[in-house]
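User: Study the fold:
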Amino acid sequence: MTPEHAALIDGEPLPTERVNAFLEAPHRGAGNCATSHDGPAPARRQAEAPSVARQRRRWATQVVVTDELARRACTDRGLEPPPEVSPAKVLTLAESDVADLGSIVAAALAHSPAARTLLAALESEQTVPETAVRDYYDRNRDRFLTPDALRRGVDPFDEAAPSDTLPYDEVREGISRELRKAAGRKAFFGWLDQARAGVTYAHGHEHPGDPSHPDHEHRH
């Protein structure tokens, strides 16, 4: 693999310039602490320790590889992602989404229209059984207390009366939507793990958590 290639995906080179373009962009709101600094990229690089710069490049490579894998998956599925956005226009993600998805996948979804399109397709394919929806409602009554019950500090698992809990029919669709979303994310992670099996990284572009390099950091 030449320095012009950050990785090989099923034997096809991924140009290093795509990783560089991502690194040059002023990212805000997505990524881990090593990729979310404000200010011009050259100034950031000069202020960084070499180990931090290496981890930033490895982290950015994962985001770009995920984008490329998603593009290919969309092509295979006949999906048409929206027009590509500039790396400088990385969307801000809710903190809860970063926690749920992990910083690499969250940033990839923010950066990549193809990844978002694929995730939406996977979510739409999920089927949530009625029994699973009902079971979630029964086990999480604390989430479905009425505003009045919340004001009174009702314990949903002890002293709650039937009138203190929102009726199942009122919340069923919301529960089903959330479970379908969770199943879609699980399917996305499963797809990504399988798709990454065909990726070979160039030196200096390995996964940040790869224990084969001395300053590895296990952070997704």
Remarks:
- Residues 28-40, 86-93 have pLDDT under 50 and may be disordered.
- The first helix runs from residue 16 to 24.
- The radius of gyration is 21 Å.
- Strands lie at 5-9, 12-15, 199-201.
